UniProtKB/TrEMBL annotation, chain A:
PANTHER family: ATP SYNTHASE SUBUNIT A, CHLOROPLASTIC (PTHR42823). Residues 157-213 are annotated as: Disordered. It is found in: Cell membrane; Membrane. InterPro entries: ATP_syn_F0_a_bact/chloroplast (IPR045082), ATP_synth_F0_asu (IPR000568), F0_ATP_A_sf (IPR035908). One of its GO terms (molecular function) is proton-transporting ATP synthase activity, rotational mechanism. The chain crosses the membrane at residues 12-33, 39-59, 71-89, 95-118, 255-274, 311-334, 341-359, 379-395, 416-438, 444-470. Gene3D superfamilies: ATP synthase, F0 complex, subunit A. This is ATP synthase subunit a. It comes from Eiseniibacteriota bacterium. Belongs to the ATPase A chain family. NCBIfam families: ATP_synt_6_or_A.
UniProtKB/TrEMBL annotation, chain B:
Residues 13-72 form the V-ATPase proteolipid subunit C-like domain. GO terms for molecular function: lipid binding; proton-transporting ATP synthase activity, rotational mechanism. Pfam families: ATP-synt_C (PF00137). Keywords: ATP synthesis, Cell membrane, CF(0), Hydrogen ion transport, Ion transport, Lipid-binding, Membrane, Transmembrane, Transmembrane helix, Transport. The record marks 59 as: Reversibly protonated during proton transport. This is ATP synthase subunit c. It is found in: Cell membrane; Membrane. It is a multi-pass membrane protein.
């Protein structure tokens, strides 16, 4: 619990404060986010000044003139800080400022508590066996889930009683509704019956041809979660109850659940192989070992022996993850998470943040600016800086956009192609009233599984690798000073 | 010509035009890569990797047009 602890608190507070500020800015008015960020900044500066004063007063130089000068400076600084705080209080929402002010203290308390917990005998006993720890984590997650759903349920129940009250207050509309409901139901049943007689054969054929169905909007293949959501909604509709919360959750986070499923699948395979290592490998271990070796050679070949090993885990995992996500959509009743822009944007943003983080760590801020300015070394270079700077900055921002759109477009287009050909196969045989369609989509499934999925995963990872490469400090031992670095490194 | 008709005419045409450009680009990339492999067969792996990546760049342009089509096709009613 020394200065090092305070430095860690400061770092964590800055990062966590940034994340919270972004979240608040996304969900609430900008004034709240600004107030929170200002509060965190004020609190951190305040803590730093206090630390400075304490260090000066207790350090080895105490009592000297230099120490007094520094103390006077610190007090002047804290006066200015308090003036700034008063100014902020008049401009920004007070609650947000107070929350921001307490945030570093919260981080400090949490850090101290976790440090105390990690050293305790309780923690050692709990984490001794992975099964016990897993059960504990699952219990905690379940308890959080239960608490949150119950809280939501309570608020919704309140809302319902309110609506009931208003309905009872206006019995005329209530009676109207009950009158109108059976009519609408009969109409709906009639319409559905007519549609069923018309499309019964086609629907049966579609199911036989790979399990997809006509839906509103763009046609897509059915998947497990979508079916669960639909049946639950249908059941709730029949009983006249509101649709339960978990159905909304499932519907909203369908792709996230699929991507998590893929992540868990890969993790289970990797962990089981790593825990069960044998010198004569079984088939699974041979597969994983082959892949790891190839990935190592491939990425180290591009990034070089100095930086390669650091990025191999990230990039190799990225490739496997994207590949499995691409391919899993070809299994009937599954869904490719990468055919949704949210997942691809999330991955591209991860790569973007990691690339910029690496650039800042390896080059420093000035080195990064120098890189963004096109590394000017002569008069022509400096003259071109106003031109090169925006070009490089826009290029940096364009990278995640092109990465995510490329992956999304390819996988989504592939899915659409399969749907289109499956529909074509069904409609080609619809005159015969057979319970199946021509499997026209099968050759394209092979195309997708063998070419599109691995190539798109490779392209995503490869481009990420090259973005890392362009941001890393270039080695000068080849005699290429500042000419054609990108061409030199990109081969 | 109203908005929906203009979209209905322009969207497939847009993909087609983009595909022409991508096709020419892919052909040139494949041509160059095949010639390079023919001249230097031992560098096949490196050439293929570079070819696939540049091919993905060329292909992505059509994909952008395709995504635009899907974003705008909902407006044809």
């Amino acid at each position: 619990m020394g200065l090092e602890f305070l430095a860690r608190v400061r770092r964590s507070s800055i990062v966590a404060g940034l994340v919270v500020t972004l979240a608040v800015a996304a969900a609430a008015p900008y004034a709240l986010a600004g107030g929170f960020a200002a509060g965190v900044a004020w609190s951190l500066v305040n803590l730093a000044l206090l630390q400075f004063v304490v260090v000066t007063m207790t350090g080895p130089e105490r009592g000297t003139g230099a120490a007094f000068r520094r103390l006077a400076l610190a007090f002047a600084g804290s006066l200015a800080l308090f003036a700034a705080g008063a100014f902020l209080l008049t401009k920004l929402p007070i609650m947000a400022l107070a929350a921001g002010f307490t945030f570093p203290f919260l981080v400090m308390v949490l850090k101290a508590a976790s440090a105390a917990l990690l050293e305790s005998a309780f923690w050692r006993r709990r984490t001794a066996s992975p099964w016990q720890a897993g059960v504990l984590v699952l219990t905690l997650v379940g308890a959080t889930w239960w608490a949150s759903t119950n809280f939501q349920g309570a608020t919704r129940a309140d809302a319902q009683t309110e609506t009931h009250a208003t309905e009872h207050a206006a019995p005329a509309t209530d009676a109207h509704a009950t009158e109108a409901a059976p009519a609408a139901g009969a109409e709906g049943a009639e319409g559905a019956g007519g549609a069923a007689t018309g499309h019964g054969e086609a629907a049966a054929g579609e199911h036989a041809a790979g399990g997809h169905e006509k839906a509103e909007g763009p046609q897509v293949f059915e998947n497990v979660l979508g079916l669960i959501v639909k049946s639950a909604e249908h059941a709730a509709e029949e009983k006249g109850q509101p649709v339960p919360a978990w159905v909304h959750f499932l519907h909203q986070f369908e792709i996230v659940i699929y991507s998590l499923f893929v992540a868990v699948l890969i993790s289970i395979i990797a962990i089981s192989v790593a825990n069960n290592w044998q010198s004569v490998p079984g088939p699974l271990q041979a597969l994983v070992e082959t892949w790891v070796e190839h990935a190592w050679n491939f990425f180290c070949g591009i990034l070089g022996p100095k930086y390669g090993p650091r990025f191999v885990p990230f990039l190799g995992t990225l490739f496997v993850y994207i590949y499995v996500m691409n391919v899993i959509g070809l299994i009937p009743f599954m869904h490719s998470p990468t055919s949704n822009l949210n997942i691809t944007v999330a991955m591209a943003l991860t790569v973007f943040v990691y690339v910029q983080f690496t650039a800042f760590r390896e080059l420093g801020f000035l080195g990064w600016l120098d890189h963004m300015a096109g590394s000017p070394r002569d008069v022509v270079g400096w003259a071109l800086v106003p031109l090169m700077m925006p070009v490089h900055l826009i290029g940096e921002i364009a990278k995640p956009i092109s990465l995510s759109c490329r992956l999304f477009g390819n996988i989504f287009g592939e899915d659409m192609l399969l749907v289109g050909f499956a529909t074509l196969g069904v409609s080609a045989l619809s005159a015969l009233h057979l319970p199946f369609g021509l499997p026209l989509q099968v050759p394209f499934m092979f195309l997708a599984a063998l070419i599109t999925s691995p190539v798109q995963a490779l392209v995503f990872t490869m481009l990420s690798t090259i973005y890392f490469l362009l941001m890393l400090p270039h080695d000068h031992d080849h005699g290429h000073e500042h000419h054609g670095e990108e061409a030199h490194h990109a081969h | 010509m109203n908005f929906a008709a203009a979209l209905g005419l322009a969207l497939p045409l847009g993909v087609g035009i983009a595909a022409i450009g991508s096709g020419i680009g892919l052909g040139m990339i494949g041509n160059g890569a095949m010639q390079a492999i023919g001249r230097q067969p031992e560098a096949t792996a490196k050439i293929q990797t570079a070819m696939i990546i540049i091919g993905a760049f060329a292909e992505a342009l059509t994909i952008y047009a395709f995504v635009t089509v899907f974003l705008l096709s909902g407006k044809i009613q």
